[in-house]
## 1
Amino acid sequence: MERRAKAVKRKAKETTKLANENEIADRFKSEVPNWRKLNIKEIGRRAKEVKPWKAKESKKLEVPSGASWAGKPVKRRYAFEVEGVPREETEYLKRGLMGPCWLDIRGFVPSTVHLSHCKIEVSVQNPKSVKRAEEEAEAPPVVTMTLKMKTVVNPKSHKSEIVSLCAVCNRDGDIEGGGVSSTSSMQQLSLVRPLGLAAGEGVMNTFPHDLNNEIAAHMPQLKTNPNERAMISRFMAQVGAWDPDVIVGHNAWGFDVEVLLSRCKELKVGSWDRLGRLKRGTFPGQGRFENGVKDWVIAECLSGRVLCDTYISSKELLRETTYSLTHLSATQLKQKRVDIEPQDIPVWFNASKNIVQLCQHTLMDCQLVGRLLDKLQSTGRREKAKYSGGLVLEPKKGLYDTFILLLDFNSLYPSIIQEYNLCHTTMNWSAHHAKMMEQKAAAGVRSNINGEEDDEDADDEVQEVGNDLPPIPDESLSTGVLPRVIRTIIQRRGVVKKMLKERGLT
């Protein structure tokens, strides 16, 4: 599968001249294995951003290369950015595979070497054997897994450690209906381990002796583990058995998954790659979770599965002052939830009853996240009622964190604005304002002559003047700001509606 990398010409360190095509070709030859004769051509595209090392009229060079090149960036001496490297993106664009869709795969053979944890793995000799299906079938059911955990901060290492972990698997998830999931197709996993070295002063570092009796009486599905490594390994084995398509969590991208992967790396859990579908021996990016590479490392580790974060989705679909699970449970699910802070968790391990209640709280969080997912699916697909013509919207109660601007470009008012070029930049308000001030001054003089102030009559006269509008803008004037903005929005809306009707776009 051929790659087509694109490099931006820049100045060399030793000179102030732009590197030419031959110099960039030599650089690619030294770093691209099994390169063939490079057919470099310029792409007439202006740089979006002018930088000191980039010419104002900088052009990109298209360089074909073999499929064996792993996509390592060229040393930044002659080319600053190398684009078009991922083979998957190139084929997606060529085959029109934009968005989830059914595929028609021809001429496939079973793979002899398995590179993933999938049950069925096949390979094709030619990328052209993979095409988009002619007929769209119904969306298949997806396997979803909801994940929540409880963590504590180790007083010595000052790192977050997992003490309780729960997951709920739904094998009959509906990605289109958005209805309430049935409990008959659900399975759950609840794990807990003793605090061990993470226990602080005055806290038990082992399980109480009567914990098994408490578990048998109130939470039989809860499984105890000797340490954190054994608990995570057991969880990863269950993930491999469930093989979920979608992993769901609340603030999973920002905290849960990052903590889980970092603990796998710290404890050397060999089955960490079960969190994704690709078999891996080492962590991508050496398992660094610093800012800038954290999101990339998490995405690589989850290759083959979709991570759905209800914390992020709720920000897009709901209007709330805060998006914590406690607040959304109260406002969206009408269920009260009690917050348990990480610094308070060690105290819960002093009694068997508290340990079971803590695990029940974690399991309830899983169920709340699953219900919130169903709620967001139905909310996102619900068609909003259209505003009636001439409607004046009443102010909505609540706290606005940002400025709100409502522009209804589908009613009669914008049409009038465009037709008559009505805008604060085109209408002459000066003469109208002068007339209003004269009338106001005359009304004040009459009240003084009469020896009494009749504020009501004076206000009526001023109000009559205020109802008068300035003349319609002259046709020779250029289009104002407001009509131009409205026209642009309407045109873009038409283009988007036309694109949605095309088959190749999803």
## 2
Amino acid sequence: MYKEQKMQEHKERLIRNDPEAAEIIKGNWKLSETPGQKRAIRTKVQCAHKRNEQFEKKYEETRTERTQRLNQMQEFRQVIIKCQEENEKLHLQQYHNREFDTEIESIEKRRRLEEVKEARRLFNEERRQ
């Protein structure tokens, strides 16, 4: 189905672009044409077919290149998104670590204050005695 459609499009393109090729495709050979003229027309048609095949081949190559580039871009986007998520996680982790560090520092300060108070109390008791 697809191949037949492509061939039909190819024939229509040839008919539009080259009237002599159109005559051959339609099968309207002129009786007055000599074998040399017919050969020249056949050569023209073959060249037109070759040009069309080369165009289609080039089009397919560019299409595959385009799809490869799109795939690469999608992969890059995924990598970027993943890196951004990891960066956000690290940022949050650093923030929580800072909070945790400040809590530890405040606990250590309280403990030192309690030790100092205890030492003062003991010192004051020894003085009184």
## 3
Amino acid sequence: MHGKGAYCYSNGDRYDGEWKDDKRHGKGVVVYAAADGSVSEKYDGEWMDGRMQGWGKYFYADGGVYEGEWNDGRMHGRGTYVFPNGNRYEGEWVEDRKHGYGILVYVNGERYEGYWQFDRAHGKGTLMYLQGDRYVGEWSNGKKHGRGVLTYSNGDIYDGEWRDDNASGYGVLEYANGCRYEGEWEEDHRHGQGVLHLPDGSSYEGGFFHGKKEGNGRIILKDGSIYIGTWKDGNIVGQGEFRLSESCDLSNPDY
């Protein structure tokens, strides 16, 4: 077959379009038949040597629809895929997988814009969460990993290191209430050595364990006075040392 023509296959499939040397070549439409004879899937686009090549639109049996570039029968290049659940991806593809730069808009309103590797967010990207949180930073294998900034809907801002989707490593959290923590994190908790600054001008320097003060530390008051002691589960335990600043007036009843 050569030129334009239609061909019906014994299994019910039908191709209508251009041919070259008995192969689909050029522009054409193929309709794949289901077992009951109804239309299962459909491709409308360009062909080369019997395979989808160039630009085309494919309607899948599960309801998904892809429109974009093809190479050797696979989604490859730039294209848009609307998933059966309503999610929509627009961007680069490599061998049927999201790969390169692209935007995925979820049906619930969330949105990821950035780089992909083998169908997973990988590299630099931005994720807008449904509740209003916003993460801008590095990703690895679909998870926040590396350096990034997460701005929470309540006004808190974390800027630091991430590992496997959790704040881990060194980071700074600016609380909406005026507090500020600088130090080590593990699995989204203040964990290790850090400094917690309070709105009243005082601060705590020392150890943390799963978000609470733990181990040796000291409190520095706004006037420069210092308490040195030990904490357990967020509370002071045992005896400590309190050093008044030179500016303290001991005749003042506030001291």
